[in-house]
Amino acid sequence: MKKINIYLISMTVMYLLTGCLSDLDNYDAPGGGINGKILDAETNQPVPLPVQGSTGTIINLYELNTDATKSIDFYAKYDGSYENSQVFNGDYEIVVNGPFVSPCKGNVTVKGQTSYDLKALPCARIHASATVSGGIVTVQYEVNPTSPSFEVSNVYGYWNFAPGVDDGVANHAEKITVSETSGEIKFDLNNSVTYKNNHYKIQANGNRIYVRIGARVDGKVNYSVILPVTV
After folding, report:
1. Which residue spans within 57-203 are E strands per DSSP?
2. 3-state secondary structure of 34
């Protein structure tokens, strides 16, 4: 009799657990997604952004006309694009706080995989180009604030082993800080301990490194595009 009671109790517990799991499985999966670009409001070109991660630019999606109280948060990519392929269909306000004069916002209806571009005014636009000769990488740059009242406090030159490059400690192998808003920054790889110690990584990547310029303008860091360089 005792064995029968234990068996009945076990079967009841298993039934309850199975029922709970079935309830969880009955929720519909997100049927939509959103993707797009953050474009310069004046030039209509993608705004270069920091790398996805702790230093990245966060996209906030606020669901409208529901009882939802929390936003859906995810990172924009360093090339100015963004994507989240798992979003419920519905109406949303989208808000992006980045290295812009003010946050960019918009309202979008997600129905399936939906494309939606945003417009923002960066604090500065940075043009950069790179050349290499004799193990020295020279990056020529020019920082152009979008308002005469904006102060450029520092300009940064970075190089990294991977395509993701920004001011985060994990996202650059070396960093040089200058104050001039135009000029050139040189990386002497021949005398770089970091470069020598990691030369095998660079060789495995086709002898490529990646360089970028950043500028701190009114407390926010804007970037150039990331430039691949064969060394």
Report:
1. 58-63, 72-75, 81-87, 90-97, 104-110, 113-115, 118-120, 124-133, 136-145, 152-160, 174-178, 182-188
2. strand
Question: What is the pLDDT tens value at each position of the chain, 231 positions in all?
Answer: 444 455 444 554 454 444 444 444 555 778 899 999 999 999 999 999 999 988 899 999 999 998 888 999 999 999 999 999 999 999 999 999 999 999 999 999 999 999 999 999 999 999 999 999 999 999 999 999 999 999 999 999 999 999 999 999 999 999 999 999 999 999 999 999 999 999 999 999 999 999 999 999 999 999 999 999 999
Strand partners, 110: 90
Nearest to 51 by CA among 206, 205, 174, 170: 170
With vertex at residue 129, the alpha carbon angle to CA 126 and CA 131, rounded to the nearest 5 degrees, is 155
Phi/psi of residue 197, each to 5°?
Answer: -70, -20
Strand order, beta sheet including 124-133: 124-133, 136-145, 182-188
Q: CA 152 from chain center: how many Å?
A: 23
CA pair distance 97, 201, nearest whole angstrom? 34
Residues near 170 by beta carbon (within 8 Å), at least 6 away in sequence? 53
pTM of the model: 0.85
CA 33/CA 84 separation, integer angstroms: 6
Beta bridge mates, 119: 39
